[in-house]
């Protein structure tokens, strides 16, 4: 069943927070940098005039006039009504960023639901579409579901907006270089989907990411402190996983997997089969899909969907249940072991289980007991909201690449 919603939830897309650095690290002219700085100034203020930009950036009026003319012709900014100045002088025309100039489709996965979002340049959700995909689905069915979501979103693409690309944040093994979704334990029949090639019919760039990487990228963009030293992102929900960044760069592997803490074998003699095919993995003892059958004996209404489970767990005190206590013990120990692999400066916690205050506190206490005493004091824990990070993180480079082209001046000097 396809669920479509339409909203304009405004959240400044992190690509707009540092537009003025868009040409850094490559060949560019001073005039290119000036064009990016002027657009950045408009994004930061929301509205401005040519005179106000001239004063705030210290540029020559002729430079500002020329670049603003280009930006208007490129449809990146628009002009508003004349604005009366205090005292004498002619009215000034207000300028506004045109966030509808570019749009992008973002695909994410929650539990066994594929979610699509159509976002504009400011991170506003123009439309969204969700569809559940049965566990037994094979390649063709999954591809058809994805295409159905994209087509539903493109039907509401504003007529004056250009589709800049498609970004997908996917669970399992993802070969980002080749654009292949290799496997996912949520859909055992999924096998080597050449997703970038399959979606080439839309004639836009397609970028695939391992699910937690764009979430961590998003947090790095939002908070410059996270780009100092090591940052570990830990997710505990339908599945269990992690991502790690060193000095602002997310670490990856050529295999398309990284930080697979959920598939660490913690009970070798266990008869519990993991969704990955192995036995005794951490997920078999602590992931939402594994604890749900036992949890439903006490709470039959416990949902499988992560956002719904988040609301459920905030209202119910499930601590004290044997299945939860066991899960906490295994997760605390595993997180402690993961910490001793990277020794990060901070740990970002994400997922529905983290949203329960009692579980969070027990996790921190168990974690503290599992690591050497001399490492405990500097550890910084932060609970992050994962409602939009993956969706925005997977289109960051799409918008940035498109903007970089538009923010090059056409003056050949």
Structure characterization notes:
The protein has 413 residues and is an alpha/beta fold. It has three domains: 2-9 and 101-215 and 391-401, ATPase, nucleotide binding domain (Nucleotidyltransferase, domain 5), CATH 3.30.420; 14-98, Orthogonal Bundle (Arc Repressor Mutant, subunit A), CATH 1.10.10.10; 223-378, Nucleotidyltransferase, domain 5 (2-Layer Sandwich). The protein has 13 helices and 15 strands. The chain has helices spanning 30-45, 50-57, 61-73, 139-154, 195-198, 212-222, 282-286, 288-298, 306-315, 322-342, 357-369, 389-393, 396-406; strands at 2-5, 77-83, 92-97, 102-110, 113-120, 125-132, 162-170, 173-175, 180-183, 206-210, 230-236, 240-246, 249-250, 346-350, 380-383. A hairpin with a 4-residue loop joins strand 5 (113-120) and strand 6 (125-132). The longest helix has 21 residues, at 322-342.
Order of SSEs: EHHHEEEEEHEEEHEHEEEHHHHEHEHH
| CATH fold-level topology of the largest domain | Nucleotidyltransferase, domain 5
Which CATH architecture of the largest domain? 2-Layer Sandwich
**Global shape:** globular
Major beta sheet summary? 6 strands, mixed
- The tally of beta strands, per DSSP, is 15
The order of strands across the largest sheet is 1-6-5-4-7-10
Averaged pLDDT, please? Answer: 88
Q: Would you identify the regions where 5 or more consecutive residues have pLDDT less than 50?
A: 3-12
Spatial gap, N to C terminus: 56 Å
CATH superfamily of the largest domain: ATPase, nucleotide binding domain
Radius of gyration: 24 Å
What is the CATH top level name of the largest domain? Alpha Beta
């Amino acid at each position: 069943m396809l669920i479509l919603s339409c909203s304009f939830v405004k959240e400044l897309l992190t690509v707009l927070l540092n537009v003025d650095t868009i040409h850094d690290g490559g060949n560019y002219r001073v005039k290119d940098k000036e064009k990016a700085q002027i657009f950045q100034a408009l994004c930061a203020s929301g509205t401005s005039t040519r005179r106000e930009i001239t004063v705030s950036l210290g540029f020559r009026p002729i430079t500002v006039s020329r670049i603003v003319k280009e930006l208007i012709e490129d449809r990146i900014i628009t002009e508003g009504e004349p604005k009366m100045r205090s005292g004498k002088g002619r009215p000034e025309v207000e300028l506004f960023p045109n966030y509808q100039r570019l749009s992008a489709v973002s695909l994410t996965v929650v539990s066994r639901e594929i979610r699509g979002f159509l976002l504009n340049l400011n991170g506003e959700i123009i439309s969204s579409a969700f569809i559940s995909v049965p566990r037994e689905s094979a390649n063709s069915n999954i591809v058809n579901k994805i295409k159905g979501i994209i087509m539903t979103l493109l039907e509401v693409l504003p007529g004056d907006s250009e589709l800049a690309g498609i970004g997908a944040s996917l669970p399992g093994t993802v070969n980002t270089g080749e654009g292949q979704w290799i496997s996912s334990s949520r859909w055992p029949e999924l096998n080597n989907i050449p997703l970038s090639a399959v979606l080439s019919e839309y004639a836009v760039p397609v970028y695939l990411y391992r699910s937690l990487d764009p979430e961590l990228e998003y947090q790095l963009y939002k908070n410059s402190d996270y780009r100092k030293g090591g940052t570990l992102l830990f997710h505990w929900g339908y599945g269990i996983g992690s991502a790690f960044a060193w000095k602002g760069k997310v670490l990856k592997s050529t295999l398309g997997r990284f930080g697979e803490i959920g598939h660490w074998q913690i009970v070798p003699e266990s008869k519990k089969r993991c969704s990955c095919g192995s036995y005794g993995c951490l997920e078999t003892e602590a992931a939402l899909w594994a604890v749900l059958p036992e949890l439903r004996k006490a709470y039959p209404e416990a949902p499988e969907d992560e956002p719904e489970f988040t609301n459920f767990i905030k209202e119910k005190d499930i601590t004290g249940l044997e299945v939860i206590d066991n899960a906490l013990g295994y997760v605390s120990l595993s997180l402690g072991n993961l910490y001793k692999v990277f020794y990060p400066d901070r740990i970002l916690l994400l997922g529905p289980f983290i949203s329960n205050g009692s579980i969070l506190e027990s996790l921190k206490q168990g974690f503290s007991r599992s690591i050497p005493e001399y490492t405990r004091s500097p550890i910084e824990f932060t609970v992050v909201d994962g409602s939009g990070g993956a969706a925005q993180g997977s289109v960051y480079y799409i918008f940035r690449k498109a903007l970089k082209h538009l923010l090059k001046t056409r003056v050949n000097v």
